[in-house]
Amino acid sequence: MSPASAIACESLEAYVDGELSAAESAAFDRHVAGCSACQAQLERQLRLRANLRTTLAKPAAGEDLRHRILAALPQDRPASASRPVARRQWLAMAAAASVAAILASSATLYVVRPSAEDDWQQAILDSHLRATLSGHVIDVASSDRHTVKPWFGGKTKIAPIVLDLADVGYPLLGGRLDIPQKDALPVLVYKAGPHVVSVFVRAADGPAPAGIAKIDGFSILNWSDDGLAYSAVSDADGAELEAFQRAFAAARQKLP
User: Fold this and answer.
1) 211: left (phi over 0), alpha (psi -120 to 50) or beta
2) Cα separation of 143 and 183, whole Å?
3) Could you report the per-residue pLDDT of 116-142, keeping only the tens digit for each?
4) N- to C-terminal Cα distance for the chain?
5) What sections of the chain are H helices per DSSP?
6) Cα–Cα dist 217/234, whole Å
7) How far apart, in whole angstroms, are the C-alpha atoms of residue 251 and residue 245?
8) Alpha-carbon distance 241 to 223, whole Å?
9) Secondary structure letter of residue 236 according to DSSP
C-alpha cells in the first residue's frame, strides 16, 4: 500500500463521522472506489451505525434512584412540633427535584437519540451528498426505464417502479444502488432543471409523513404508493420537489 493510500484509509473513521470537509469527502470517495479494504470496512461501519441507532433503548429510571432519595431523607427523631411540617416540605422538594431530574434525563435522551424518521432523512441526505460530491450519482446511465428497471434485478429486494418524466420536464438520468442504512436500496436519479433529484425506494411501513423536510438547505419529500415508500432528496426548493412528485404520481397512474 502506498503512503498516500495509507493516509486515505486512515480517513475512514472521520468520513463516517462526517468530520471531513466537502473536498476531503470527495477525495475519500475517489479512493474508496478502488480500495476493496476500505469498501468492506465502510460497509461494516455503516451497518454498525444503523444497528446502534435501531437497537439502543432508552434506559428507565431504576430502583437505585428511589433508594438514593429515600436514603437522603432525614430520619424521624424527637423534636419540636414544627419538625413534621419541615419534613413534609423537604419531602415535597425532594420529589419535585427527582421528577425534574427524570424529565431532564428524558429530554437529553430524546436529543441524543433522534426518531427513526429523523435517522432515515439524515441517512438519505448523507447518501445523496456522497454521490453528488464524488461524481458517482448513477451506476446505470440511461433515460430508458426498460433499461434502468431490470438493472436492479438481483441487487436489491425492492423492485422499483421506474418512470420516464422527460416530457414533463424531469428527465430520467439512470439509477444507482445505495446503502443509506442497513439495506441496499434502489435510487432513481432525475434532473429538475439544474438540480439532481435522488429518489430512494423502500418497502412502505405505514403511511409516509407528509410535508417537506429541510436539512442544511436540502429538501426531502416522502410519499408512498402501492406498497412502496419514496423519498426524494435534492437541493431544489420544496415547490420544485412537490411538482416533481405530482408528475411522478400522474405518470404512475398511467401505467397498466
Assistant:
1) left
2) 25
3) 888 899 999 999 999 998 888 999 999
4) 54
5) 3-10, 12-16, 22-32, 36-55, 63-72, 83-112, 116-134, 145-151, 238-254
6) 9
7) 10
8) 12
9) S
Q: Which residues pair with 32 in a beta bridge?
A: none
The secondary structure of 129-172 as a DSSP string is HHHHHHT---SEE-S-HHHHHHHTTTT-S-------BGGGTB-E
CB hemisphere CA count around 121 (13 angstroms):
20
Highest mean pLDDT among 54-58, 208-212, 223-227: 223-227
Amino acid 138 reads I
Q: State which amino acid sits at residue 94.
A: A
Q: Quick: pLDDT tens for 145-159.
A: 999 999 999 899 999
Q: What's the rounded Cα separation, in Å, for the pair 34 and 104?
A: 47
Cβ–Cβ < 8 Å for 181, 123: yes
